[in-house]
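User: quick one, fold this
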Amino acid sequence: SSTTPDAQTPRNLFGFKDGTRNIAGTETDRLAKHVWVGDGDGPDWMSGGSYLVARRIRMNIETWDRTSLQEQEDVFGRDKREGAPVGRAGEHDAPFLKAMKPTAHVRLAHPDANSGITILRRGYSFTDGTDGLGRLDAGLFFLAYQRDVRHGFIPLQRKLSAHDALNEYIQHVGSAVFAVPPGDRKSVV
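Assistant:
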């Protein structure tokens, strides 16, 4: 995923740009609002830290590759070549969510469709050979940082698990939630 506003967005193993509208590392106000645990949000030792959801997502690449380009773009809600949202020209153009299919991944995951829920996500592609049946054992190692998983990842994931067209092409094979306390500010030079 891109980490600064001017960074080029990488592509996932399905060929789509991944993390276009992510929080940038330079957006300190958004990081404070959505990522860093605030005073009084929980135990004192977590103030200034974050909660991390880690998921290993297997991508059914062979099935995806047999799917038409139009269906692939409908599944994501983005143009595959430019990464532009449906009906827009540029990757970073504001999406018009109602122009997308109701099951489009972008439409379902966007903060405007989720009462402002915003997570800082990072995706790392992996390939671990084949599964013994000739299919690629490959996918995305997904990391999502947020202030509170109960108000971030959990409601977002419930919506995606119930309606996301992308579910036909992926399988979550491992998940964990971690409390990531803040670093020791005294030792930072």
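User: anything notable?
Assistant: The mean pLDDT is 93.
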